[in-house]
Amino acid sequence: MKKILIGVVILLLLAAAVIWWLFQGEPAQYTLEQTTGTDPTLALPDAQMVPTVEIAEPIGWADGDTPQAAEGLVVNRFAEGLDHPRVIYAMPNGDILVTLTRAPKSEVTGGWLTNFVAGILFSEAGSAGPSPNQLVLLRDTDEDGVADERHILREDDLDSPSGIAWADGNLYIANHDELLRFDYEEGANVVTSQPEKLADLPAAGNHWMRNILLSEDGESLYIAVGSASNIGEGGMEIEEGRAAIHELDLETGQARLFGAGLRNPNGMAWNPWTGELWTTVNERDMLGSDLVPDYMSNVPIGVHYGWPWVYYNDIVDERVESRMPRYLTEYTRTPQYALGAHVAALGLVFTEEGSRMGDLFGQGAFIARHGSWNRIPPSGYDVVFVQFDDRGNPVGEPRRVLEPFLAAEGQTHGRPTWVEWDRTGALLVSDDTGNIIWRVTAPGAEGAAAIERNSGERLPSRRQLTDDPSRAFEEGAINPADIM
């Protein structure tokens, strides 16, 4: 009997050693900076049966501690003691709305083992537990940079809410599975009206956040829906309506697919130079620590970014079993700007009139990089700025606004999630595991000037979509004037 017990113990130790070895993963070959920018380094794919796992455990912030801001910037706690704050939305009167939310109870695609591992990852990353399902109003009445009023606007009818939008007395909230509209006059401390369901949305899945954005004329609403899987491993039937951005006509109720092939689109904003929709996207996993860079890019109507079959325009993902649509690589678009491998880019805002971030952070985009769980060493856990030129194109390398929230090895103080402007021109940053909203500004800085919308003669319309239109402007390509 003693020998049997010894044998069992040895087998268990061997099994533990194998599991430990499997989860060690391969460190990155390239620096994070090499996988960012307009021309990122793309490593050779390293398909993995077991993903690289390197989770930073959230430990919170000690009293009085703050993230480290870039030179010339200061950061303070705008609000704290919030339960997993995610999306922030600034009302015209300066009130700040925020959704307190977590993932709904659901299974992710990939079977029992995937769900078991996902449960461990969520727990270690500080994302496990029931969703608070609250919409909260924060108000800074004296503009001292700290919210002095807090009100629960709504709890009923909310189910893992995320996206927020408001216009003309209409408050729009995106649950993980539906889009709701409430009557709400700004300045009120509670939403009492009954909701009107505007649309059903694909529920939960591996990516459950549903961000929304109103068109500049207020007539349409754009809804970002992430995929239910990593690379369509559960079949493409369950991906219907996912990995996409939808456009909803608020007058007629008609919806159309606006952009597709976007594995997990999150932040959305209007490019102030061009009026074009831009989004941040989390790309696929289990190809190694260097692949695939998350990105931000424009979303012209009808665009396809290749998921799940290809990434970065024409690199075929050999793991995908579903049949690739014919001629897909003839019209997939190349992402405009890589934000780094596995950084989990979420919230996105552009510089706007009155924003006060100083000369080093002038005209461009601010992005919250939530942080990796599958890269060695970790990436993200910070807020970055990407400069844009006068034509509305990203240039250069990302500049850190807030340094990584990482603490000791294997730990992080928090995870930046969303970004928004307050009425003083400061940048608000939600920290969903630190349970804080941070406020960043450049003391004494002048408010930024309004960005002038580009104008000029339109190119002739194209009668047939044969490829990525941006290729027409590459060196050696045809003259834009010849496009028909």
Could you give the topology of this structure?
Elements: H1 2-22, E1 36-37, E2 57-58, E3 74-80, E4 85-90, E5 96-100, H2 111-124, E6 134-139, E7 149-154, E8 164-167, E9 170-174, E10 178-183, E11 196-200, E12 212-214, E13 220-225, E14 244-249, E15 255-260, E16 265-270, E17 277-281, E18 293-298, E19 303-304, E20 310-311, E21 315-316, H3 328-331, E22 337-341, E23 345-350, E24 364-369, E25 382-387, E26 399-402, E27 411-412, E28 416-421, E29 427-431, E30 436-441
Parallel strand pairs: 2-27, 15-19
Antiparallel strand pairs: 1-22, 3-30, 4-5, 5-6, 6-7, 8-9, 9-10, 10-11, 12-13, 13-14, 14-15, 16-17, 17-18, 18-22, 20-21, 23-24, 24-25, 25-26, 28-29, 29-30
Helix count, DSSP H or I runs of 4 or more residues: 3
The domain count comes to: 1
| Quantity of strands, as a count | 30
- Under CATH, the topology can be stated as Neuraminidase
Mean pLDDT: 90
Helical percentage:
under 10%
Distance between the termini: 83 Å
Radius of gyration: 23 Å
Major sheet details: 5 strands, antiparallel
The percent range for strand residues is 25-35%
Report the principal-axis shape: globular
Q: What are the low-pLDDT stretches, counting only 5+ consecutive residues below 50?
A: 15-22, 476-484
What is the correct CATH architecture?
Answer: 6 Propeller
Provide structural commentary:
This protein is mainly β and 484 residues long. It has a single domain (57-459), classed as Neuraminidase. Helix content is 8%, strand content 30%. It contains three helices and 30 strands. The strands form eight sheets. Strands 1-22-18-17-16 form a five-stranded antiparallel sheet, with no helix packed on it. It has a five-stranded mixed sheet with strand order 12-13-14-15-19, with no helix packed on it. A hairpin with a 3-residue loop joins strand 20 and strand 21. It is globular and about 70 Å long. Mean pLDDT is 90; it is low at 15-22 and 476-484.
